[in-house]
Amino acid sequence: MTLCIAVSVWLAGCATSDATLRQGGHSEAYIQGFHDGRHSGMKEAGNYLEHVVKDHRRFESDADYRTGWLDGEDEGMRMQQEANAATGNASAYRMEREIDRSRPDAEAIGHDAMRGIDPATLRVLEQK
Prior knowledge:
By secondary structure, the chain is mainly α. The protein contains 7 helices and no strands.
């Protein structure tokens, strides 16, 4: 859960802001489309907390909204794929640590197996 919250905060910091879009000369229609598309892209890439957001009439009739939506969808998918990779890597690391903890210590097993055995009797086997 903590990892999910951290990734969400990280994603928010990586998102393109309204100010950045305005500075790039984009219209309010583009910006609205961009935000709708970004949420949709994140949903499409596997974020179960997001929803597909699309004003279908506006998408068909407003070129700025449509272009913004498509650009936002691309960004949303990319952001979510990066988040998926980050959480997958963290999960794999935690699993590997758990596996390492659960593995038996081979040296300790060897010592236990040899307990009560005279090593001299094993040397006889080497000679044969």
